[in-house]
TrEMBL record:
The species this protein was found in: Algoriphagus chordae
Enzyme Commission number(s) of this protein: 4.2.1.51
CDD domains in UniProt: ACT_CM-PDT (cd04905), PBP2_Ct-PDT_like (cd13631)
The protein, known as: prephenate dehydratase
Domain Prephenate dehydratase per the UniProt entry, residue ranges: 5-182
Domain ACT: 195-271
Highest classification ranks of the organism: Bacteria, Pseudomonadati, Bacteroidota, Cytophagia, Cytophagales
Keyword Amino-acid biosynthesis attached: yes
């Protein structure tokens, strides 16, 4: 049987790569891409069976463009994964922090280590495609004076030395990843979470009414994110994650939202992993 093809952003040692291995096991084929749009495209055109996408980090917040990608490429969410994230400050062996003039990493990783770099203002921050590819490129190019922020797994793979461990602002740091597929996910009775998009017209108290409707059905709103409707400047859609005990109550709530507000898109119904 051919192996499952899993699309990720990043190279071996990246956090996406770690989620792929933990979620699907070692016996998979990884399709690695430089950008999130390429990951979305590969799932949409069925080159990949599944895609993995970081959506939110506990320090740095939401990755806004990824909400739009799921929507635009009509992808479906089949599962979620919370990965603890520890960032290591690493460089070619034998250097100290005073030798480092520049650090490169994924923008989300740089954001998670802002406090550390405020304490070391002589180091210039540069955004790059992913954490592990920077470690790989520093090692391959024998680049002195340049550091990476990446995982200890990446340090091991690419022979980098950790100069400062665990430099993320808060030690207890998590990124939530979603597992994407092309087909609409088939909800089972064991699902207790759904990701939705509700578009409400600009009306007085519209959002308040929506939130009350959700609360009155005993459903827990675990996340709400407003995203601009780009065709209509200053109008917003709401990406809403709902956690429920009974799928039938969730279905009834969606019917009620549709009756009062119009369009509701369901990206997926799955099991909460938190
Ligand atoms: O650069 C990586 O290693 C990634 O997997 C990307 C990514 C992200 O997109 O947020 C994943 C987890 C961390 O939050 C930092 C970076």
């Amino acid at each position: 049987m051919s192996k499952l093809k899993i699309a990720i952003q990043g190279v071996p040692g990246s956090f996406h790569h770690q989620v792929a291995l933990r979620n699907f096991g070692e016996d998979i084929e990884i399709l690695d891409f430089d950008t999130f749009p390429s990951v979305a495209k590969s799932v949409a055109n069925e080159e990949a069976d599944f895609g993995i996408m970081a959506i939110e980090n506990s320090i740095a917040g939401a990755i806004f463009p990824n909400y739009d990608l799921i929507d635009r490429f009509e992808l479906s969410i089949r599962d979620e994964y919370y990965l603890p994230i520890a960032h290591q400050f690493m460089a070619l062996p034998g250097q100290t922090i005073d030798d480092i003039k520049e650090v490169r990493s994924h923008p989300m990783a740089l954001l998670q280590c802002k406090v550390f770099f405020a304490q070391h203002p002589h180091i210039q921050l540069k955004e790059d495609t992913d954490t592990a590819s920077v470690a790989r490129d520093i090692a391959a190019g024998n680049l002195k004076g340049v550091a990476a922020i990446a995982s200890s797994i990446a340090a091991g793979i690419y022979g980098m030395e950790i100069i400062a461990p665990d430099i993320q602002t808060i030690k207890n740091n998590f990124t939530r990843f979603i597992i994407l597929q092309k087909e609409a996910s088939k909800p089972t009775t064991s699902v207790n979470k759904a990701s939705t998009k509700v578009t409400i017209q600009d009306q007085k108290g519209g959002l308040a009414k929506l939130l009350t409707l959700i609360a009155d059905n005993g459903i827990d709103l675990s996340k709400i994110q407003s995203i601009p409707v780009i065709e209509k400047p200053w109008e917003y859609a709401f990406f809403i994650d709902l956690v429920f005990e009974d799928p039938a109550v969730f279905a009834k709530t969606i019917d009620e939202i549709r009756a009062s507000f119009g369009e509701v898109k369901i990206f997926g119904e799955y099991l909460s992993r938190k």
